[in-house]
Amino acid sequence: MTRWGIIGPGRIAHKFAQDLMQVADAKLTAVASRDLGRAQLFAREYGATYTYGSYEEIINCPELDAVYIASPHIGHFEHTLLCLNAGIAVLCEKPFAMNTAQVSEMIHVARGKNVFLMEALWTRFLPTTLKTLEIIESGAIGKVLGVKADFGFKAPYDVDKRTFNKDLGGGALLDIGIYPLFFSYLILGKPTKITAQAIFGETKVDESTGMTLTYADEKFAFLDCTFMAKTRCEAFVYGEKGTIMIHSRWHESKAVTVEYDDETTETFTFDRPTWGYQYEIEEVNACLEAGKLESEGWSLTDSMNLISLLDAVRQEIGLVYKDFDATETV
To answer: Which residue ranges traverse the bilayer (predicted)?
Structure first.
């Protein structure tokens, strides 16, 4: 039984906790918030025993194996190091941190302390993602030529919340653009060139960003994200003999369709009663049980490569966060 703690009991943490309850060998033990009352309400809802009125106090929990960090982007680095230095395994929400330098330090500490660390890119472990990789590996669509993926929704405009708040690491790229960028990296690896453009709003964060990635073997990726419009939220892998489409919304999808060049199709469905976070929870549990310090499915090297791509896009569009300037790390 893996005893979990949560730092930052917000919207995503609620989904995580609900799915955690569906995992047989896991339970929620501790909750930490900057507001003790909020931590207590969350703990009562999901059966946690220990509550703390500051993030820092959670490391004092006497029954704790792993912590899920769901604080705002700008806190990921600090809260990950807090737990790693206390010898507590960490699953940290995406983006892993604000830049390459921070991620490098997190990895350095995790390896130096021999403590498990993983970025919570839950989409990597969904059955639809695994099926997509299986189809590609089988050769069913032939040589992969390119990738296309989008993620867009109309975000409520509130300058005090993370989405549009630059001081909290807001903006479409780090919040949702990371998903298409992750997908292109998963399928095609690191590109040789990135071009990108963005539309900035009044709070000086990117409200929409488009990216074109090219590769040494002439493959391509067309990616976009936006807070300003509800888009199709589909992902495609184009091959010489067919196309894979991950149905909307692709980052949490339950279905994959393959359309072959002869116009025949196959659809694979993976129904579930959960949000889908249980797969990453099960991955962490399995790694801890096996004594692993990182996941083979989404390694620390993968996280390092992804944050370097995010930094590169930030440089390309001119998105600079105070104290987290991407140009300092690339």
So the answer is: none
Closest Cα to residue 149, out of 258, 41, 226, 78? 226
Q: Give the ranges where 55-126 is alpha helix by DSSP (H).
A: 76-85, 100-113
Task: Give me the percent of the chain exceeding a pLDDT of 70.
Answer: 98
pLDDT at residue 325 tops 80: no
Helix (H, G, I), strand (E, B) or coil at 144: strand
pLDDT of residue 326: 54
The count of other CB atoms within 10 Å of the CB of residue 211 is 26
Strand partners of residue 30: 5, 50
Q: Residues 71, 55: contact at Cβ < 8 Å?
A: yes
Q: Distance (Å, rounded) from C-alpha 125 to C-alpha 301?
A: 17
DSSP for 174-226, written as a single string = IIIIHHHHHHHHHHH-S-SEEEEEEEE-TTSSEEEEEEEEE-TTS-EEEEEEE
CB burial of residue 229 (10 Å; 0-12, 13-18, 19+): exposed
14, 39 contact by CB (below 8 A): no
The domain made up of 2-121 is a member of CATH 3.40.50.720: yes
The CATH number for 127-275, chosen from 3.30.360.10, 3.40.50.300, 1.10.3720.10, 3.90.180.10, is: 3.30.360.10
